[in-house]
């Protein structure tokens, strides 16, 4: 799978709809300081389900919405759409029928985010798991931000292991296992409660 296209609307400094075609091979983004290069990388993290305002260099999640300038009013929403090509059908089984996947996230002021995969509304979790399964994602090692190399060198073994697991594409499995364990624990507690009730009735 590969990233084919990135579209932004009202996201940080990208007030007008801006469409980037991502060609195969190496892509470089060049421009003067403050022109929005890092905002582009943040848009990618954001559409993959990043939910930490700090990772987005923002105070609050709504801060990703274009805040306005002296000549332009602020926007009421921000939207990022990423298109992934799936010509060799390597997408996770739930999405593998389609030759391409379109993942979008939209945030409306004070109303939170809506995610869609190929037009169908999904949970943030579904988008995060999709990207975890294809070994990329908001926290993926495929996105190297400033200062990250130094952090890796100084990382504790347990953190380094997490990075290797992300690269191996098994982070999604860990996350599903954790959810299943929580559900199992809740079911066990319910059973204990049923036992108590039955004992009282006997
Ligand atoms: P540098 O090379 O200095 O790291 P850069 O090209 O990576 O810069 P960014 O950090 O991506 O630039 O962009 C910063 C610009 O984005 C600033 O001009 C800032 O005002 C603008 N910006 C950030 N958030 C918003 C927002 N919510 N609304 C409008 N503009 C924003």
UniProtKB/TrEMBL annotation:
User: What are the subcellular locations of this protein?
Assistant: Cytoplasm
Task: Report residues binding ATP.
Answer: 32-39
Family, as annotated: Belongs to the SMC family.
Q: What does the subunit comment say?
A: Homodimer.
Domain statement: Contains large globular domains required for ATP hydrolysis at each terminus and a third globular domain forming a flexible hinge near the middle of the molecule. These domains are separated by coiled-coil structures.
- Say what the protein does: Required for chromosome condensation and partitioning.
The protein's name in its UniProt record:
Chromosome partition protein Smc
């Amino acid at each position: 799978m590969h990233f084919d296209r990135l579209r932004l609307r009202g996201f940080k400094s990208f007030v007008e709809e801006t469409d980037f075609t991502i060609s195969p091979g190496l892509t470089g983004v060049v421009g003067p300081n403050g022109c929005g290069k890092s905002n582009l990388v943040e848009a990618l993290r954001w559409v993959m389900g990043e939910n930490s305002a700090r990772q987005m260099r923002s105070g609050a999640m709504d801060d990703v919405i274009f805040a306005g300038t002296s000549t332009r009013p602020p926007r009421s929403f921000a939207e990022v759409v990423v298109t992934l090509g799936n010509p060799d059908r390597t997408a996770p089984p739930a999405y593998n029928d389609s030759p391409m996947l379109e993942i979008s996230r939209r945030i409306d002021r004070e109303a939170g985010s809506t995610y869609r995969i190929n037009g169908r509304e999904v949970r943030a979790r579904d988008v995060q798991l999709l990207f975890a399964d294809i070994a990329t994602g908001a926290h993926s090692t495929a996105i190297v931000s400033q200062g990250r190399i130094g952090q890796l060198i100084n990382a504790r073994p347990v953190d380094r292991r997490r990075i290797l697991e992300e690269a191996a594409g098994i982070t999604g499995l860990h996350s599903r296992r954790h959810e299943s364990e929580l559900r199992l624990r809740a079911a066990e507690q319910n059973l204990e409660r049923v036992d108590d009730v039955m004992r009282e009735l006997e």
